[in-house]
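Reopening this one. Same input as before:
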Amino acid sequence: MLPVKARARRAGVKARDVKGILPLMVLMVIVFLLLLFWENELNEDVVLTSIEHLHVDYPQSAAPPRYCNHIILQRVIREPDHTCKKMHVFIHERPQKINSICTSSKKMACPNYSDIFCFQSEARFRLTVCQLIEGVKYPACRYQISPREGFVLVTCDDLGPVNFQGYVD
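Same output, byte for byte:
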């Protein structure tokens, strides 16, 4: 077995040549990591706006007394200005059942928008309403849990439900 210096001379590679490449390699790793984090930030916004991510919890997660606090933190649910949401609703039904709302015959003008149509579920869904009781700035939000059953209102496009608009008792 030849010593390392002898092998390097035979291969034509000198130790000082490798030292010159090191800063370039470090720079490449930094650029790669920056691109990786930048890509994840872009994808985060897409995921956070889907109805399934924001409002569907099926099967229902276990953590009853602190359910709202836990799942709102886990899913990073907040207002765009990083304040606590005053109220948030989770639907505990199969996604297929939620998708079927868009074929409901109960089509009406959405309560908050006169020119947008909402579809109301034909059946009552199991829901959890999380009402803000303490805090202003996310993540220092504390919620009260209220299990309910109600008819769900959503807006739809050709692919299915797009936005949760509320519920009717």
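So the earlier flakiness isn't reproducible anymore. For the record, Residues 12 and 63 are 64 Å apart (CA to CA).
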